[in-house]
């Protein structure tokens, strides 16, 4: 309870519009190096972008009309603020509709791989993340809670699914390998929360392997992974009464044994010293401290924790991290005052900005909403996708133009629902709940079990399967074929009950065309576009409207943002 | 050191080419200027125009398929007999293939590196041992083949060079390996033949509407005409132009459509359908070079001989038997087999000897089996041998005195397609060199090379 009140106060610490610490760094560097920035995005470009990035959805046509017509100078800031749901206060009923919460819960579910291996735990984990974001719990507390969670069943306690998800089986596929599981937790937490990838050195020392890849990791040894993992030596993760995949998470294990055979890695050195030691700075347990609690404390207090977090959110919103990819930090190449030996260069594109964002994040209770708000409020975020004069590909690292991205797999199909006004219904697995946006599903299995054919289509668009396949925004021939010719899309564009076309066909042609543009592109048509659209309608109104909707959903500027 | 220059297109060049490239693929060669080099001069065999790789997903039991063994554990109705070529074959499991032993060369001296499905599949699809650091940047063999052969495409080609059928990304097997660090024109076209109609044919009733809509789209989508759009959008446009080219080709329905009669002849299974499409694609001679067909469910941990004598290996061998025999028959009749290499194998073998408590077999790396045909492969042979249990290789049967690995199969595949398997890509994102077939494998095995013994 105390924590809830505390985080509500934290959420109230809002930024004022002018004080954006980002722009000085971004535009300062461009100025210094003579790089020209793209112009500021138009209102509709910005409106569409910020909606998709912050809430996962397109703005409704009516909202677009209002925003475009608004002439007040602070309208962008007002729009940004309107995308965040209010924090709960006493007497408030519930926050029933909050696309922001859907979108960011989905983001963390992808990140924490909340998928089919957890079965009913998917829903408890989902609800836990949703609640955490609803209350805007500070990110460090969020992470500490998951790392220290204990439960008799992951199907009743959401936060414990985070650790349970990292279980590793023996080769027989029935028993859990304790040491491998501890390794996996160390690898996952170090990757997700510190941005450092230990995969390589979990099998062998970095030396003679990573010299060209990662300077810091090339100096690390495999034993250091075991020491990191040994914070979880006593963490006991097992199926409840043998009923996989319902897990208990306790602290009753007998420790990390080097002699246990690994199911996935080479033998460990049985004589190694594996006193639990934090990999980044060598810190150890305080006297009498519980190892997992110590790990959670050391992890979230380390400066790299905030740096990794802000970089991750930055990459999600800007398309590229300041360190990119965001889970490939090289810790020996972060400080411009202490640069690495040649031929290495400092890794972050904007090291001072990364530091400043991390500092701000720490000082403001690791407030995710504040961070998101700050990034999308910056001028840097609001640059157009247009290519400025004198462009070179290397200018991408300056963030000199908006990097164009395809809508995520979920966004493609949710946007198709929004524009057509024809929504599918997804049954939430193990629950009576039904939802109509993919971004509201608890995991891909909701879609899979509701409509396997649709699931396969969405997978082709690069949906994260929360196991091995990460979210992927690359295009493909199959994607274009599906948009051009799949019966799923052909059905969607038909005039049908409660669909957008049915309503629009009751009004005049010009309005139909305008509404379609506002729904799909958040802007009005140009004179040329309107002419082509009106011609299409002239040769048969209903058929023409279906063709237009189909063409809208196949437009590149609909599919990309 | 021989350097293969990779052309770097200027931005202006990209715009001028638009979607329709010289390759006729309709795909933009979105050139990441990869620095590809050949380290040594080897002489590829260049005996094939296409490779059909049959991926027996799950790891088939070597001693119940192409390296069949007698044992107290095995039911008698596998009907093991000695063929006219003097090796044993399960007539009861794969009766139709016994009519094609003239074409088949069976390799019984194979080993795998991995016994985890996802890592094994990675190995099978890329020819490289799994490495977490390099998973994202490693191209699959199909993508390398596409990358290598795109420059040789003709105006008339309308099928993409790399096509994968029926590979379903699952938690167990991992994702389909794609183009990695190569450009998107090397990406696979993925066909799911279990999901009903393919979106590459406009049905007759839809044709007129599709044409009308396509014309509308080209006029209406002003963003496609914008020369200033960024690369991901330009690529997407190229993909849709390539799809449109396929859909509008008068032969596409011959390639993609399956008749009821022939479907029956191929077994009327998703795998049979894949073999049929592969046959059609090879026959169309329209640019498809590497076709990976996945045949799922070989992971027989329990009831490998079924509960009823019909499931387990009985079912899967019957599916494989029917489809592969029909494919061999058709390709032989059309003489296309002479220029098409067929490779048939899984990601590892299975534990030999007695069955487990679940009446199945577990994963096993020390013995596995593969079958080859076409493109100059001399049939009627079993190369290499295992001990009486099929538990280890006792005779390698080829020019090297060690078991055959996927790397050797990979070199064979590259070789028959005329590709130098020793080429290397220098500027990968991780900074580590990528060799098409890495001469140094895991566990100290080195010097991989094509299995020349296959070709007699």
What would you say this structure looks like, in words?
The complex is a heterodimer of chains A (561) and B (456). A two-stranded antiparallel ribbon of chain A has the order 1-2. In chain A, strands 3-4 form a two-stranded antiparallel sheet. Residues 1-18 of chain A have low confidence and may be disordered. In chain A, helix 10 crosses helix 12 and helix 14 packs across helix 16 (368-377). The two termini of chain A are 41 Å apart. Chain A is mainly α and 561 residues long. Chain A has helices spanning 2-12, 21-32, 43-55, 61-69, 75-82, 99-111, 121-134, 139-147, 161-164, 178-194, 215-218, 222-229, 291-301, 303-318, 351-363, 368-377, 409-420, 444-450, 452-460, 477-485, 487-492, 500-504, 509-521, 527-538, 541-554, 556-559; strands at 236-240, 243-250, 426-427, 434-435. The longest helix of chain A has 17 residues, at 178-194. In chain A, a hairpin with a 2-residue loop joins strand 1 (236-240) and strand 2. Chain A is globular and about 80 Å long. Chain B is of the alpha/beta class and 456 residues long. Chain B contains 11 helices and 18 strands. In chain B, helix 9 (270-284) runs parallel beside helix 10. The longest helix of chain B has 21 residues, at 313-333. The model of chain B is unreliable at 1-33 (pLDDT under 50). At the A-B interface, helix 19, helix 20, helix 24, helix 25 and helix 26 of A face strand 8, helix 4, helix 5 and helix 6 of B.
